[in-house]
Design goal:
Elements (H helix, E strand, L loop, with lengths): L2 H14 L2 H23 L14 H4 L8 H19 L2 E2 L2 E2 H5 L10 E5 L7 E3 L4 E5 H7 L3 H16 L2 H23 L8 H30 L7 H8 L18 H8 L2 H18 L18
Parallel strand pairs: 3-5
Antiparallel strand pairs: 1-2, 4-5
Helix pairs in contact: 2-8, 4-7, 7-9, 8-9, 9-12, 10-11
């Protein structure tokens, strides 16, 4: 049995053996949930940093500015960021209304391509830095639409303030977990504090990844990349999934199969396809100019 299920069973037994504690815990959870919802929804974005937050040793392995991989990644990133900043109206609804997030124009966007063909990974930092490893770039992003899927996902993490929201959520969850431990005498029953926190954080991480997928799909569509290519990107990653990860407390990403299913939902893919059709028409017009990114490591001004 997985750690998540085992922990859930132990926690449930603790509640059933102490009805009074269960009632108190339930009241605490409801109150905390209401407080959490209000606090996180109003979470402000801290001032953007004009300096890099990436480790110097990591940047030492970055490809040169004029390398074809760097140029290509930055070109696609520029298209997506331009679409975000333009915030055009698609069928009487702005892009920001469709995604549910407005971009902070003070974000200093940077793109770094790191040499490591064995590392299938990309990540973003709240200050607007995006890091792409050559491992995922050269194996799974041969099509620009697949690269746009990857970059759209990372840009979505930034504009949706996922890092800041996660910091706050983790703090509140730790407080809540401590309350539950005191009420149920959880440490005595063998439930480590870290596991209890992970139990609550796991669905939160999954929800943010799925939100970044959906928002990223809208962004790449608005940038003129076909959203119907996005599912094939995640299907290609399915062999890398470890089935056991879906039942461990440390898992932070849903399975590729589930991500494809969410993207293929009619109200998601259908909306993105309509945005894409209008974006293509706009880009073919004389006013459809492409935003240019400065050399890697410098700010987008």
């Amino acid at each position: 049995m997985s750690n998540a299920r085992c922990l859930g069973c132990r926690l449930f037994r603790g509640w059933t053996h102490s009805p009074r504690a269960a009632a108190a815990a339930a009241a605490s959870i409801v109150s905390a949930a209401a407080w959490l919802g209000k606090s996180i929804s109003t979470c402000p974005l801290p001032p953007s940093q004009s300096r890099t937050l990436c480790d110097g040793k990591l940047l030492a392995r970055a490809l040169p500015d004029d390398h074809r991989d760097t140029v290509r990644v930055r070109r696609v990133a520029a298209d997506i960021i331009a679409a975000v900043r333009e915030d055009r109206v698609f069928e009487r609804r702005r892009l920001s209304e469709r995604t549910g997030h407005r971009v902070d124009h003070d974000i200093h966007w940077r793109v770094h391509v790191i040499i490591d063909d064995n590392w299938i990974c990309a990540f973003s930092i709240y200050n607007g830095e995006i890091v792409v490893y050559t491992g995922i770039l050269r194996r799974y992003c041969r099509k620009d639409a697949h690269l746009a899927t990857l970059l759209g996902h990372e840009v979505a993490h930034v504009i949706a303030r996922h890092t800041q929201r996660t910091y706050r959520m983790r703090f509140y969850i730790r407080v809540l977990a401590k309350c539950i431990e005191e009420l149920l005498d959880a440490p005595v029953r063998g439930i480590p504090h870290a596991e209890l926190v992970s139990l609550f954080m796991r669905p939160w991480h999954f929800s943010l990844e799925l939100e970044a997928d959906r928002v990223g799909l809208m962004l790449l569509a608005a940038a003129g990349y076909d959203p119907r290519d996005a599912p094939s990107f995640y299907r290609a990653l399915e062999p890398l999934d470890d089935p056991s990860d879906q039942y461990t407390l440390t898992a932070t990403h849903p399975s590729s199969k589930r991500r494809v299913e969410k993207l293929m939902m009619e109200h998601v893919m259908g909306e993105a396809t309509k945005v894409f059709s209008q974006a293509v028409q706009w880009r073919m017009s004389p006013s459809g100019l492409r935003l240019k990114l400065p050399p890697a490591g410098r700010e987008l001004v």
